[in-house]
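Our preliminary data section would be incomplete without showing what the modeling component actually yields. Below, a chain of 87 amino acids is followed by its predicted structure, encoded as C-alpha cells that our downstream tools consume directly.
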Amino acid sequence: MQWTAYEIFSVISGLILIGTAFAPGLSVKDRAYALLGGAFFAGYGFYVANQAAGTYEFPVYVFVIPALAVLYLLYRLFGGTGGSSAG
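Predicted structure:
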C-alpha cells in the first residue's frame, strides 16, 4: 500500500461524514447521504492506496464536498431558521 496525504485525507473525510450521520436530529435522507458519501470517500482512499501502478486523480471535490456536507449537516442540526423570535 502506498499512503499519501490525498489517500489519508480521503479516508479521514469519509470517517468524519460517517460519524456525522449519527448526529441526533437528522432526517433519514440526511443520514443516508452522509453514510453513502462517507463510505465512498473512505473506500476511494483505500482503493487508490492499494494500487500498484497507474495514475489516479483526486479531484478538488474530494476536499470540498466533505467540508460542505459537514457544514450542511451542522446547519440542519442546529436549526437554520435564520433568526430567533425572542420577545
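Residues 28-49 form the longest helix (22 residues). Helices lie at 5-20, 28-49, 61-77. Preliminary results of this kind motivate Aim 1 of the renewal.
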